[in-house]
Amino acid sequence: MKEILREHEAAVRQAGQALAEIGKELASGHIEAALAQLAATPQKYPEWDELDQATADIAAVIRDREGMLAVQQILGDLAGTIINGALRAAQI
Fold it and tell me: Per residue of the chain (92 residues), what is the pLDDT tens digit?
């Protein structure tokens, strides 16, 4: 995940700056200004398309890891079943 964020460092920095600006408006109680700024932000930072791609890349990595863990769990269960069966058969 860190690697993907580093690859898109400029977009990540700009996103942080935009969030800080919007947060400043919200902290000041300027809700309408914050919402207007939020609506204008994607046009101000076209690099956010890169950030969207980085987010998709991170989601794909997480899905791949979850899938890999599920496969490992299933294979571990199967191996355990086979070993237990062999041990029981040897005791008979």
Answer: 777 778 778 777 887 888 888 889 889 999 999 888 888 877 776 777 777 788 888 888 888 888 888 888 888 888 888 788 877 877 75
pTM: 0.46
First-to-last alpha carbon distance for the chain, in angstroms, is 52
Take residue 38 and report the two structure tokens written for it: 């939020």
Q: What does DSSP assign to residue 1?
A: -
Q: What is the dihedral of CA 24, 57, 11, 34, to 10 degrees?
A: -20
- 27-37 burial, b if ≥16 CB within 10 A, otherwise e? eeeeeeebeeb
52 and 14 in contact (C-beta within 8 Å)? no
Number of Cβ within 10 Å of residue 54's Cβ equals: 21
